[in-house]
Amino acid sequence: STDFNGTWNIISNDNFESYMQALDIDFATRKVANLLSPQKIIEQKGDSFIIKTISTFRNYEVQFTVGEEFEENTKGLDNRKCQSLVTWDNNKLVCVQKGEKKDRGWTHWIEGDKLYLELNCENQVCKQVYKKV
Ligand code: RET
User: Fold this and answer.
1) Rounded to an integer, what is the distance from CA 46 to the centroid of its chain?
2) What pLDDT shows up at residue 132?
3) Parallel, antiparallel, or unpaired: how do β-strands 92-98 and 81-89 relate?
4) What is the DSSP letter of 123?
5) Which of 26, 41, 60 best tests ligand 1's pocket when mutated (most atoms within 8 Å of CB)?
6) Cα–Cα distance between 38 and 19 in angstroms, integer?
7) What are the contacts of 94-98 at 24+ separation with CB within 8 A?
8) What are the pLDDT digits (tens) for 65-120?
9) Where are the alpha helices (DSSP H) in 34-115?
10) pLDDT score for 28
11) Does the beta carbon of 62 sit less than 6 angstroms from any atom of ligand 1?
């Protein structure tokens, strides 16, 4: 499977505002969050991952093993609890976040020196691209 290890800097962030609205993130947080250039730091050992989203405003960290459902607390984002499950779909890492919000999840994959992340919630899709540092 793909190697996601490394530090990645965001280079584009499409529809983040609508994604945050779908999560009911408050106005003030959205205004700040829209100005950030978050970095991803990914530590992968086989199917075990630590994914850190780092910004000057707030950080978010999630740890999981592919194929093992876990309770995710989206602290600092929308502060909800989800039953989350990450699986491989070929070389894509796909997460389903079951909870109060419909169709919630994300997909990560790599092409060359770019990391792609699609974030879904309700009817919104946010598309982010990161470049390897
Ligand atoms: C920031 C700043 C505070 C407000 C919001 C944020 C959004 C973070 C997101 C993180 C997604 C992480 C994933 C990890 C798993 O791979 C930048 C922390 C709303 C959307 C998908």
Assistant:
1) 19
2) 98
3) antiparallel
4) T
5) 60
6) 16
7) 95/64, 97/72
8) 999 999 999 999 999 999 999 999 999 999 999 999 999 999 999 999 999 999 99
9) none
10) 97
11) yes
- Element holding 31 (H helix, E strand): helix 27-33
Test site for ligand 1: of 32, 44, 53, most ligand atoms within 8 A of the Cβ: 53
Q: What is the mean pLDDT of the chain?
A: 98
Task: Determine the average pLDDT of the residues in 39-50.
Answer: 98
Q: Is 109 in the pocket of ligand 1 (CB under 6 A)?
A: no
CB 48 within 8 Å of CB 62? no
What H or E segment, with its residue span, contains residue 125?
strand 124-132
Q: What is the dihedral of CA 130, 104, 75, 118, to 10 degrees?
A: 0
> Rounded distance, CA 37 to CA 81, Å?
25
Predicted confidence at residue 1, as pLDDT, reads 77
Residue with CA nearest ligand 1 atom 5: 77
DSSP character at residue 5:
-
| pTM of the predicted structure, to 2 decimals | 0.97
Contact between 119 and 125 under an 8 Å Cβ cutoff? The reply is yes
